[in-house]
Amino acid sequence: MGSIPVKVGSVPDSIWGVSPFSSESSEMTDPLVSKRPARADAARNFDAIVAAAREVFERSGSQSSMDEIARIAGVGSATLYRHFPRRDDLVEALYAREVALVCEYAESVTGEGDPFEALTLWLRRLIVAMGTKRLLMEGLAFEPSRYPTLIEALYAAGRVVLEPAKEAGAVASDLEADDVMRLAIAVSAAVYRDDAQRERVFAAALRGLRPAN
């Protein structure tokens, strides 16, 4: 097969700025966003909490006070904990829409065409997503049990693009979805001198997926 052009930064950052619970995503039937309440007043509180958490986490990190999030959202602490019993439940809600986009992309690139290119495109998308969602990357790398819904969805999407590449002999036959996910984590976690260096590292990682002979 010919070489695949690798541009890690080719996915626009703007796609990750979509609110997880915008009017677009509220029409989705994906289980990742199904936790949003149906009742109007509960849905408003849910959205307000998610918006406040995004603001607070971006400013102060994931260990920010849940009481501060409740205050900014204009709800009581009891309301916040009713929707999100754990801090990690709130992080999952924050990233649900972004993860859904990555999972949908796996389906859209798989099918006709080069299965290795499909795997490459999906990995590139995943790396960009994790680069802007550090909590998700850390959960994938160190504590997968923290965000089970998101991580199970990402692993399922990884299998969607990996298995056709294995069947075509385009990648090593013993590769597992977990191997590919950890490759993406490693590429995403590193600090690069510039985009050109990041692209070289990604290209080298892709070559490592190929069969030994």
Explain the overall architecture.
Helix content is 64%, strand content 0%. The model is unreliable at 1-32 (pLDDT under 50). The protein has helices spanning 23-26, 40-60, 66-73, 77-83, 87-109, 115-132, 134-142, 148-167, 177-189, 195-207. Helix 8 (148-167) crosses helix 9 (177-189). It is elongated, with a radius of gyration of 18 Å. By secondary structure, it is mainly α. The two termini are 13 Å apart. It has two domains: 35-85, Orthogonal Bundle (Arc Repressor Mutant, subunit A), CATH 1.10.10; 94-212, Tetracycline Repressor, domain 2. It has ten helices and no strands.
How are the secondary structure elements laid out?
Blueprint: H1 23-26, H2 40-60, H3 66-73, H4 77-83, H5 87-109, H6 115-132, H7 134-142, H8 148-167, H9 177-189, H10 195-207
Helix pairs in contact: 2-3, 2-5, 5-6, 5-8, 6-8, 6-9, 7-9, 8-9
Summed up:
Helices cover about 65% and strands about 0% of the residues. By secondary structure, the protein is mainly alpha-helical.
Q: What does the average pLDDT come to?
A: 80
Along the chain, the helix and strand elements come as HHHHHHHHHH
CATH architectural grouping of the largest domain = Orthogonal Bundle
Find the structural class using helix and strand composition: mainly alpha
* Extended strand count: 0
Number of separate structural domains: 2
Beta percentage is under 5%
Q: Unreliable stretches, pLDDT < 50, 5 or more residues?
A: 1-32
Shape: elongated
Q: Number of helix segments?
A: 10
Largest sheet, in brief, is: none
Distance between the termini: 13 Å
The CATH topology annotation of the largest domain reads as: Tetracycline Repressor, domain 2
Helix content: 55-70%
Radius of gyration: 18 Å
CATH superfamily of the largest domain: Tetracycline Repressor, domain 2
The multimeric state of the shown protein is single chain
CATH class of the largest domain: Mainly Alpha
Domain HTH tetR-type: 43-102
InterPro entries: Homeodomain-like_sf, HTH-type_TetR-like_transc_reg, HTH_TetR, Tet_transcr_reg_TetR-rel_C_sf, TetR_SbtR-like_C
Protein name: TetR/AcrR family transcriptional regulator
GO molecular function: DNA-binding transcription factor activity; transcription cis-regulatory region binding
